[in-house]
């Protein structure tokens, strides 16, 4: 089995907070309006600042899997769809919380992916001439092989047409 390490890498200097920030792209239950968004705005877990919306430059399979109907981006570049999501600037404390929350490195692995900016709210533009940013993304290479045969989505909504209700951690057995 391959081993994965979560690491601290891409940074941007946020002059308002004088902190080192990392860019994270979220595509599932951590997005605005989704069941786990509450964690992104809980300052006790760290700082997360919404920057904009984007989609993966490469195509990936986004599946809803397991008995809790969890969204997973399978790390199979070139297969599936350009996945839509949100870009956040997070501090080290929030990044560490997200690593734990995402079960990194066992369930998900945090890797750098290229994200095409679709809509930007951050100050001073994207900082990239072509509107493509490198962001940390929690995807998985440690999935059961049968997940490859599940339907692929281009975006996730816990109350979407798929009819697969996400089960919150506090409700799991």
Automatic annotation (TrEMBL):
It catalyses: epsilon-(gamma-L-glutamyl)-L-lysine = 5-oxo-L-proline + L-lysine. CDD domains: GGCT_like. Residues 24-141 form the Gamma-glutamylcyclotransferase AIG2-like domain. GO terms for cellular component: cytosol. Its EC number is 4.3.2.8. Belongs to the gamma-glutamylcyclotransferase family. This is Gamma-glutamylaminecyclotransferase. It comes from Zosterops lateralis melanops.
């Amino acid at each position: 089995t391959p081993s994965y390490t979560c690491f601290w890498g891409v940074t941007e200097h946020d002059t308002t907070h004088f902190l080192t920030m990392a860019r994270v792209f979220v595509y599932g239950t951590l997005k605005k309006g989704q069941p786990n968004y509450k964690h992104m705005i809980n300052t006790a877990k760290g700082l997360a600042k919404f920057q904009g919306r984007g989609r993966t430059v490469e195509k990936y399979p986004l599946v809803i899997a397991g008995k809790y109907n969890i969204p997973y981006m399978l790390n199979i570049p070139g297969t599936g769809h350009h996945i839509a999501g949100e870009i956040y600037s997070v501090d080290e404390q929030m990044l560490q919380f997200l690593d734990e929350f995402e079960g990194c490195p066992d369930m998900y692995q945090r890797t750098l992916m290229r994200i095409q900016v679709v809509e930007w709210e951050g100050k001073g533009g994207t900082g990239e001439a072509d509107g493509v940013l490198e962001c940390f993304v929690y995807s998985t290479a440690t999935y059961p092989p049968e997940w490859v045969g599940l339907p692929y989505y281009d975006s996730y909504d816990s109350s979407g047409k798929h009819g697969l209700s996400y089960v919150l951690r506090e409700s799991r057995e």
